[in-house]
User: Fold these one by one.
Assistant:
Number 1:
Amino acid sequence: MSFEENIRKVVPYTPGEQPQKKVIKLNTNECPYSPSPRVAQAIKEMDIDALRKYPDPVCASLVSSLAKYYGLSDDQVFVGVGSDDVLSMCFLTFFAGQKPIIFPDITYSFYEVWADVYRIPYKVIPLNDNFDINVSDYICDNGGVVIANPNAPTGVAESLENIEEIVKKNQSSIVIVDEAYIDFGGESAVGLINKYDNVIVTRTMSKSRALAGMRIGYAFGPAKLIKYLNDVKFSVNSYTMNMPALLAGKAAIEDDEYFTEIRDKVVATREWCKKELKELGFTFRDSKTNFIFARPPKGNAKEIFEKLKENDIYVRYFNKPRINEYLRISIGTDDEMKKFFEVLKKI
Ligand SMILES: *Cc1c(COP(=O)(O)O)cnc(C)c1O
């Protein structure tokens, strides 16, 4: 017998490239603006001596700021190392049954990876040709449901009515709503956590709050589910959130004015980019996110992706069935997008 048989083997998630040279980076949906100046201040004023000690395992101050901001109680909030960590903990906690969990065929590709690594059976449900979900497909016997709303990489937002229907008709499984992009548009399901006991909503500070490098994610849910989530977290690693991240997250949440300003700038640039792309003959579903998932008129997405890259402009291309004629273009600053369109027109 070989030790190979004892090894947990998985096909890992492939993140977008992080080139070390200076490029126009429109490939991983980061925020093109700096984090709140209050974040810089909080880090600068951090007591370095306090790093001797472990950070607060329950992340109380960040949890309270989030609860206060969203009008929830502290026991309805969970925080983690980016929403990737939060979602991973959710998969580990809520999907321990035998029945397959379900999610769309075109969605955040990490879902498949977590299902694999935790040995969770899963079934993907095709979106329709417009990239919409068909609600009745989600009303079936299952071990759990995961929906990104707005969805990635399509940018399409589902109505709250549809999300509520899925939650309501799945009382015997947990429904996770991944709201990584909700600040840019769409209707949040956060209100459902006081109405149903089987729903978890996840969020991130990586996109709308310009803190991808700090790794801060969070989840909202009924207190009972948050307790289950914490029990699993404390069984894996008690100290997931480091002290700078706890301080930065709190500072970011408390600066609502700055948050609104940069979020609105991204949304305004996105609306302008939609017009430009339309004029160039690109087709796309309306985006409620900080990116546009668009098909060039000739469907030659791969070729355009490569040519943009030669010009130091990085967008995302997925060489996968059904979406291999699309480019996912993150929204940068107005200047970056002007440069992008200049180069795109030449191509
Ligand atoms: C970016 C993203 C995440 C993860 O974000 P973190 O940086 O780990 O917080 C989760 N879900 C979706 C759909 C995303 O696009």
Number 2:
Amino acid sequence: MTPPSAMSPSAILPSAILTVDLDALAANYRTIAAETPGAAMAPVVKADGYGLGAVPVARKLWSEGARHFFVARLDEGERLRAGLGADRPATIYVLDGLTPGAGPRLAAAGLTPVLSSLPQVSEAAAFARSLRSPLPVALHIDTGMNRQGVTLDEARALAQSLDRLEGLDLGLVMSHLAAAADPQDPHNALQLERFGAARALFPPSRFPKAQASLAASAGIFLGANYAFDVVRPGVSLYGGGPRERPDPRLKPVARLTAPLIDIRTVRAGERLGYGASLVLTRTTRIGLAPAGYADGVIRAAGGHGFAFVAAARRPLLIVNMDLVAVDLADADARVGDPVELLGDNVPLDDLAAAAGTVAHEVLVRLGRRGERVYLGEV
Ligand SMILES: *Cc1c(COP(=O)(O)O)cnc(C)c1O
């Protein structure tokens, strides 16, 4: 029988195919919205939409009602602005904030910097003086991650000396949770309390536009008191569980498959691949597929993860640059059969755990080589 992929270019040049299911993305958006009914959603589409394509992802989520997005870098914001076009005038926040000299480009693309240090606040205020209209900004306050954000004391000083904020139009006060993947960690309640205090420094009476945002994916699922006005989901939109394990409420969005290009029998005692790290303890059949770490499959998953081939999970033996090897044993598999490395049968969080990492890293590595195919209307 001819496999259905015979008509696609991959049948001529076998390669890995990354499928992005935009309808599953939309379903996850609605699931998260139902979790936080009072809050607006600002999807995080940094790193090219976690490797899945920031523009198609944001366009799809715009059609679901999203009007605010987060990126990390200035150039990501510029590309997103261009990709959304004039008929989708979203608010685009740039987490890097206002780096020296970036003001004109931020303003030209209509991007909102997330200011995360006092020098950034000064830089923004200086730039705002050169503009005729106020510069929209967000303020990142550190409540216990100790990574980005002004301290609570610095925030208090800013709120009290309004001249330092002159020309700045503060639309969002935000912070980021360090331990939300573990609901039992007392650090969550501590950060929640500190954020409540931080938020109170910018009351509506003096900062009428300032909204509050604390929760990313994991925080959203901690409970309604973490939602505030705006939530910032990233990985859970793309199918990653908020507890770093598969969550049945979220659908897989990314699927990575590659065809079996060779099946060979390797005898007990023989080595497999480079070096002597893998010596087979029994004679078995090895299936090879053209997807390797150059295609974003994390090398460390070899020996720990699994792939789905011929209707069952099979051990993922090695991940090389261009190839994976799977233990087919006595599976009824043939050359041309699809090897699923990520998808409905190989959950994102399981692959991440096998590779000793988080779902975020698994996703952002995908899609650099090979085809990316979108399912669903944008
Ligand atoms: C990346 C990021 C997010 C999204 O995090 P997820 O865990 O992917 O939901 C939200 N807020 C900030 C500040 C981030 O850096």
